Amino acid sequence: MKRLNMFVKIGFIILMVGLLMTVSCDKKKPKTGIGIEQQMGTQTSQQVGTEGGEAGGTISEEELAAQQRREEESTAAAAIRVKEAARSEFVNADVYFNFDDAMLTSGARNVLKQKVEWLRANADVNVVIEGNCDDRGTEEYNIALGQRRAQSIKTFLMNAGISGSRLQTISYGEERPVDPASNETAWAKNRRGHFRIER
After folding, report:
1. Which helix (H) or strand (E) holds 169?
2. Which of 134, 176, 185, 189 is most enclosed, with most CB atoms within 10 A?
3. How many domains does the chain fold into?
4. Do 127 and 111 share a structural domain?
């Protein structure tokens, strides 16, 4: 009898534990579902609040104006950088000549065509065209040759429609070499027309 009582009690305990587990599992599922729905509802309300401008997601007029100013300043700075790069390219692209010659080569003409475009786009700019030579020949001869080279460049630019009043020429002869060495490579670099901008 005691044994039977004990089996009944054990059976009853097992039954109760099983019921409790079943009930607790059933309760967890709806809670999880409700929790997700509540989270979704919260996110949706936050999104609506942000989109509707109620939850601090809006930009004030002052902030919007400041952002526009920054964008305009950035655009202006980029335009200035582009303009400065074009100006630097204009100044640094020299026109080269053959030995003892003031005639423009085809390469020189191509460089000058680009300079014409820049001068047209910058009508307020005046330039000095510097004629240079290598160190062979007398100083007097090279001054005269440098002047002829500068004049050849000026004539080309004027024929392309650039006003002569914007163009001034000067010869430095052999006084301002880019490369002071006495070899063919250095001489070729020194036989050039160089541009200096004057406003």
Report:
1. strand 167-173
2. 134
3. 2
4. yes
Instruction: Decide: helix, strand or coil at residue 173.
Output: strand
The DSSP result for 13-63, as a single string, is HHHHHHHHHHHHHHHHHHHHHHHHHHHHHHHHHHHHHHHHT-SS----HHH
Summarised one tens digit per residue, pLDDT across range 104-124 is 999 999 999 999 999 999 999
> The dihedral of CA 18, 21, 27, 32: what is its sign?
negative
Whether residue 46 lies inside any domain: the answer is no
Residue 176 in any domain: the answer is yes
Is 87 in the same domain as 107? no
Angle at 73 between CA 71 and CA 76, to 5 degrees: 110
CA atoms of 102 and 171, how far apart (whole Å): 12
Contact 157, 199 (CB under 8 A): no
Contact 108, 95 (CB under 8 A): yes
Residue 38: inside a domain:
no
Query: Is pLDDT of 46 > 70?
Result: no
Task: Report pTM.
Answer: 0.64
CA 125 – CA 89 distance, rounded (Å): 15
- Please tell me whether residues 139 and 185 are part of one structural domain: yes
Q: Which domain range does residue 172 map to?
A: 94-198
State the average pLDDT over residues 63-79.
87
Sorted by sequence, the CB contacts under 8 Å of residue 144 that are 6+ apart come out as: 171
Question: 74 with 86, same domain?
Answer: yes
pLDDT of 64 reads 87
